[in-house]
Amino acid sequence: MKTLLLIRHAKSSWNDPDMDDFDRPLNKRGKQNAPEMAHRLTHRGITPELLIASPAKRTRSTARIMAKEWHYDKDAILLEDELYLCYASTFLKVITKIDSDIDTVAIFAHNPGITDFANYLTQEIRIDNIPTSGIFAVQTDISSWSDFDRARKTFLFFDYPKQEVV
């Protein structure tokens, strides 16, 4: 059984409109939401074994903040250049390279690609937007990530900071 967590980066700062998009940092709200969402995953009994992130500053920062909550070595976060502002199809390229020994993976990326990919994964639910710090989770009964694309996925949950916790 494999579990995939798609996590959109936390809210970023627009204080400097001349700053390159790749270099935008998290804002105050983003720095608060990221650990809260990591805590929600922990509360669900989910702790990723592998974190893969776009190398953009806001995405790396989100992954590092969440890694701290999970006692995951921030230096072990795998940065994938391809995930920066990618299309949905790029996620599959990244996923098929994951070691079969890993059961739970968190991929940190950007819109619109992350929302498009979430909608590609399952017919059970359609979403308009994964908001910042949002998490979309699916599970599939496979032994190798190389089989992920063809496998039937089961929707687990969709959570985001402004969603009421029950």
TrEMBL record:
Entry's InterPro entries?
His_Pase_superF_clade-1, His_PPase_superfam
Concerning Pfam families, the annotation shows: His_Phos_1
Gene3D superfamilies assigned to the protein according to its UniProt record, in alphabetical order: Phosphoglycerate mutase-like
Supply the SMART domains for this chain. PGAM
Domain of life from the UniProt record? Bacteria
Q: Which residues bind substrate?
A: 8-15, 58
Report the SUPFAM superfamilies cross-referenced here: Phosphoglycerate mutase-like (SSF53254)
Q: What is this protein called?
A: Histidine phosphatase family protein
Which organism is this entry from? Answer: Chitinophaga tropicalis
